[in-house]
Amino acid sequence: MSFVRLAGPRSQRLAQASVSAPKAVATSLRKFATTSANAAASQDVKAKQHYTTAEQRSRYTSNVCTAQALLANMAAMYACYHGPKGLRKIAAKVHAQTRLLALALSDLGLPADNAGEAFFDTLTIELPISVPAAKVHSEAAAARLNVRADSVTRVGVTLDETVTFEELLNVINAFARAAGKPELRHEDLLRLASGAGLDAAALETLSIGNAQGQQGPFARESDFLTQPVFNAHRSETDLLRYIHHLQSKDFSLVHGMIPLGSCTMKLNSTTSMSLLSDPRYNGIHPFAPAEQTKGYAELIAELESDLCKITGFPAVSLQPNSGAQGEFAGLSVIRAYLDANGQGHRDICLVPTSAHGTNPASAVMAGMRVVAVKSQADGNLDLADLREKAEKYKDSLAAFMVTYPSTHGVYEEGVREACELIHANGGQVYMDGANMQAQVGLTSPGVIGADVTHLNLHKTFSIPHGGGGPGVGPIGCAAHLAPYLPGHPLDSRAGGEKAIEAISAAPWGSASILTIAWAYIKMLGWQGLRKSSTVSLLSANYMAKRLAPHYKLRYVNGNGRCAHEFLLDLAEFGAHKITVSDVAKRLHDYGFHSPTCSWPISTGLLIEPTESESLAELDRFCDAMISIRGEIQDIADGKQGDDPTNNSLKNAPHPVECLSDGEWDRPYSRQLAVYPSQATRERKFWPSVGRLDDAHGDMNLICECGDVADYAFEESKKK
Prior knowledge:
Its main location: mitochondrion. By secondary structure, the protein is of the alpha+beta class. Among the domains are: 75-204, Aspartate Aminotransferase, domain 1, CATH 3.90.1150; 525-699, Alpha-Beta Complex (Aspartate Aminotransferase, domain 1), CATH 3.90.1150. Helices cover 35% and strands 10% of the residues. It contains 20 helices and 17 strands. It has helices spanning 23-28, 69-107, 133-142, 165-179, 186-195, 236-247, 270-273, 279-282, 294-311, 323-340, 358-365, 383-392, 415-424, 445-448, 514-547, 580-589, 615-636, 670-674, 678-682, 714-718, and strands at residues 17-19, 38-43, 49-54, 122-126, 148-149, 154-158, 315-317, 348-352, 369-373, 397-403, 428-432, 452-454, 475-477, 552-553, 566-569, 596-597, 604-607. The strands form 4 sheets. Strands 7-13-12-11-10-8-9 form a 7-stranded mixed beta sheet, sandwiched between helices. Strand 2 (38-43) and strand 3 form a beta hairpin. Mean pLDDT is 86; it is low at 1-41, 55-61 and 701-705.
């Protein structure tokens, strides 16, 4: 997939991604985005067709920020490789083996509860008193198998395409031994399969049904995956080339810096990523018995301990699968604590207008009413307005959400005072950990005075999240909230003694990618983590200093410094019809991913370099921005003609097709278009998409959930 992160006016559609892959694959990604997403068609200036996903502010029904785009790509490629025939054959094999299991269990006097109904891959068996479930589990474990423990008298079995004939025989014989019946031989199972018409030849026409083969009411009869992409790549070589072709359209850290503010796009080291391909980590089921996961338990315990030290909190839950889910979990913990202490009537959540859009969305999902808190002209939290509203709602105040450093890229000098003010009026403080990159080893939520926070392991701790996932958003909390951390119905080890309900499917969320953050922390150590933060601060301030003579630096502290990111305000260029989107798209021609656009102000570029970038890369980016400033001046001086819609910024980005245009009707050279700097002549990343039609919406893939005021209840809105 080729995602171009650009922003147009916020009044247009908020998030639009150019997808160079076929429409079928693009559409399959919709369910992984927020629930308001829709597919749309678009075209660039060369009438080249592209597909987009878009979401409208008025239709937000979710606080989801980090989606699972990486996993969606994996699923899409699985479908591309196997195609409709291959997928149907795989499904038929799974169903045939499950039917065969149902027949064999019935012959053992252990009929599955759902054998008479249509099923696909799962059977549930109600065991007689003479066959305890514990005995079945014991026999299965002896054969290195796990079956699901439904209750003391019920077990469940689910098969998939990886189950071999021998493994199926082992499953059946585990039940046979538990029931005191003779074990089946290989030829017995083959005979049973043949008699039931479940041999290999049947897989081409097999339909979903019950154990006797009676077709179920929902058996699919229509064609599916009819698009060419799902029927073209039938060899591993072809698929490899197809994936590489798509990959060549993606700008990644392989090519250069991704300076997305508030996204922390740092290096995902090969060493920390290597554990993902190790079957000792990636082959473990999330509900495997505790005695089989002692290594994972130790890794999880170490990571929790390290995160406790980093946050200054005594307890951590790794269950949330994204930062937004961490927000929801943290606010739900606060609600549970208030309810348990006779304060369930408290439901007001104070949220600064500068907050990430997920903050008010999460508060609403947690059953709270949002009241917006103003920011001052310098970007700092308006403490007077906070005090007024905290005191006004002191009898119903539940929580205050604050980001530190702020979304403006500045350390809030009054953050401790703000926390004390909330506590004095009966509320709890939720600290958004999106900017923990500027805290690790330097300060902590616990030191600041917060009660609960979330961490983005997919940002601060190096789990890759380009394109939207996967994410991990654990929460840390103070001792009084620890008993309410989310539990899980299938694992009593998760959560506190008064745990809220699970907010993710698995007890420790996406456990297999916790290995990345664990390795990152262990390799750096405490001093290395602290140095990562300080280098981030140094890099951001160096870039801000270099660019300040050329662009307006919007927010700084009293010493003229920023935190780990900084905001450039491009409003002045509006006089020449130059927008944030124009500058961002022109950066593509210089070999850079766009910074975060039009947020937290509509005319801003939010830039975050991270500690991963060398001085040479920082200078390359600054040189590009300074060169673009020179182009803007040329446009203002009329050196690129009089048409404000035809210049090197308005026509950006320039794909390779520009070089083959027979006629060149633009008031600047082809060389300026595609090789605007010496660095691009030596190493060029070609944008695969020309300027898209902005009428289809802006191009910002960062989750935008509307202004805080959009979530405020009526009394607050009227004011």
